Amino acid sequence: MNKAIITVVGQDTVGIIARVCTYLSGHNTNVLDISQTIIQGYFNMMMIVDYSEADVSFETIVGDLEALGEDIGVRIRCQREEIFTKMHRV
């Protein structure tokens, strides 16, 4: 399984989750876990996804999500899970 952590931060607006999930499902990327909250109008979401079956490269997913974030007015960051697991072993 190839897991990635996606974070989305910005001012809340209608359709953020829908747009991100539509992109992911369109490229065979499975959402394993999702958490989102809105605090005083600011949207924050974290997702764990499996991109093992994705029909595009990981780098393409990263770039497309960054562009999608710019389009909808939020910051989207996608990082491989192994970055987090290796950081906490040091």
TrEMBL record:
Coiled coil location: none
Question: What top-level branch of life does the organism fall under?
Answer: Bacteria
What InterPro entries does the record tag this protein with?
Answer: ACT-like_dom_sf (IPR045865), ACT_dom (IPR002912), UPF0237/GcvR_regulator (IPR050990), UPF0237_ACT (IPR022986)
Q: Which PROSITE patterns match?
A: ACT
Q: Where is the signal peptide?
A: none
ACT domain location: 5-79
User: Pfam families annotated for this entry?
Assistant: ACT_6
Q: Which CDD domains match?
A: ACT_1ZPV
Cross-referenced HAMAP family: UPF0237
Family classification: Belongs to the UPF0237 family.
NCBIfam families, from UniProt?
A: PRK00194.1
What is this protein's record name? UPF0237 protein F6S87_07270
